[in-house]
Amino acid sequence: MISAAQTGVPAPVLSVRGLTVSVRNGDGPALVRDLSFDLAPGETLAIAGESGSGKSLTSLAIMGLLPSALRSEGGQVRFDGRDLLTLPESALRDIRGGRIAMIFQEPMTSLNPVMTIGAQLVEALDAHETVSRSKARARALTALVAVRISQPERRMGQYPHELSGGMRQRVMIAMALLLRPAVLICDEPTTALDVTVQREVLDLLRDLQRETGTALILITHDMGVVAEMADRVLVMRAGQMVEQGHVRQIFSTPAADYTRELLAAVPRMGKGCGARPVPASAPVAVLRDVSVRFDIRSGLTRRVTHRVHAVESVSFQILPGETFALVGESGCGKSTIAKAMVGLVQHDGRIELAGRLRGSLDAQGRKALCRDVQMVFQDPMAALDPRMRVGDLVAEPLQIHAIGTPAERRARMFELFDLVGLPRDSAERYPHEFSGGQRQRICIARALALRPRLIICDESASALDVSVQARVLALLDELKRDLGIAYLFISHDMAVVENIADRVAVMYLGQVVEMGCRAQIFGNPQHPYTRRLIEAVPAPDPDHLRPAHLRPAGEVPSPIHPLGAGPVRMELRDIGGGHLVALPSSTMESAA
Question: pTM (2 decimals)?
Answer without folding.
Answer: 0.76
